Amino acid sequence: MIAKKVLLVGNFGVGKTSLIRRFVLNQFSEDYISTIGVRVSSKIVQFENQEIKLLIWDVAGTSGNEKIPKAYFLGASAAMYVFDLSREETYVSIDNYLESIKELSGLKDIIVVGNKKDLLTQEELESVINTVSVKIDLITSAKEDENVENAFLQLASQAIK
Amino acid sequence: MEKPTVDNKKDNRFELLRELLLAEDRDKFTALSEEIIEKEKLSKRVTPLVDEKIEDLRRNFPEYFGDTITQTIKIQIRDSQDEVVEALYPIMGKLIKKAIVSEITKLSDSINKTIKEKFSIKEIFTRFLKGKKNDAGVVLNEIFEPIIEEVFVIEKNSGLLSGSYTRGNTADKDMISGMLTAIKSFAEEAFSKENQNLEDIKFDNFHLTIKNYKSIYIAIATSGVLSGEFKETIADNVHNLAEIILRDRTYLADEAKLNLLIRKHIIT
């Protein structure tokens, strides 16, 4: 079985942990993430007749002010940047965040996911899509379990490229 | 003898007077009698039911009131901790003292037994030939034997687990190797100056020793008392294992093969 380290990054409160909760059953205490700024979960996914073990590193916050150990980004095969569709501050500087993650991880592409779709009307959603300066790969709702599996499958796909 | 004449008129007057004076009392008496009779009747009907209820309550008391009483006691204990400690201290103190005395007696017996065995002519002669170990080390090792609980061979950057050994059942070794790598990275970036590595973590009676290499690190969890000699042996074995892995990187891609190698070099 192939094992890959993948990253989940994004500001505080955008729903990264909720996405993981939807996708895997976590066994570690919540205290870990607030103490050392990361939590690792594992999940085996089936992708193109292949079993892939994803080691998902949920890195807490990337607003630039927090000192996140650079080592968290090393050795990752894929990364997903999650922002909150209902909070502009989580996507207003998305270009900078993506660049800094690319630099730290050495990855060329990062999957961009807009979460909390359930908080927006269709009109508001379209407005956000037009505002965000980069291409949004997936719109999800962890609360309503919409597109969560697809987001992680896309992450697995990028990891084995 | 002649019977006295009956004064009917007088008797009737008395009777009439009595009727007049006691009419109210008689009514009350009748009402009370009826009430008592009614109560007795009711008692006959109700008593079995009450008895049945009392019996039911007696039998099912814990079920009916257990939770409430437990909750009340909890609240009482929480709100009166000082009083509880004062009340329990004499009892608990005695129990703790008894337990400590019992354990110390066991430890003392064990040390005596070990000293007796280790200081026999045969053992002294053997140690004289082998050299090395000090006497305290010999005794402590016998009593608190060091045991290798877990071994993890982990890719340095990604935290991916390449191979492992475990004595028991570890829940999710991949997740543990990931978290261990994260903790290691966090500690190294937070506290180290230049290129320093986290090498030891202690928790409870476990000791986690980390040996760092270029692209991998090896973590060994042990329990018991680690003598200097045991640490040296482990370090030598881990270095040998690392050399083999780093010379032949195919081990890192084959977990089963690496697990066998770990067993061979670290455990046996």
Indicate the radius of gyration of chain B in whole angstroms. Answer: 44 Å
How do the strands of the widest beta sheet of chain B line up side by side?
2-1-5-4-3
Number of helices of chain B: 8
Query: What is the distance, rounded to the nearest whole angstrom, between the alpha carbons of the first and last residues of chain B?
Result: 136 Å
Binned strand content of chain A: 25-35%
Structural class of chain A: alpha/beta
Q: Tally of extended strands of chain B?
A: 5
Query: Main sheet of chain A: which strands, in order across?
Result: 2-3-1-4-5-6
Tell me the strand percentage band of chain B.
Answer: 5-15%
What characterizes the major β-sheet of chain A? Answer: 6 strands, mixed
Gross morphology of chain A: globular
Q: What order do the helices and strands of chain B follow?
A: HHHHEEHEEEHHH
How would you portray this structure in words?
The complex is a heterodimer of chains A (161) and B (268). Chain A is α/β, with parallel strands linked by helices. Chain A has helices at residues 16-23, 31-36, 94-105, 122-131, 148-159, and strands at residues 2-9, 38-47, 50-59, 78-84, 111-115, 138-139. In chain A, a hairpin with a 2-residue loop joins strand 2 (38-47) and strand 3 (50-59). Chain B is an alpha+beta fold and 268 residues long. Chain B contains eight helices and five strands. Chain B has a five-stranded antiparallel β-sheet, sandwiched between helices. Chain B is elongated. Classes of the chains: A alpha/beta (161), B alpha+beta (268). Chains A and B meet through strand 1, strand 2 and strand 3 of A and helix 5 of B.
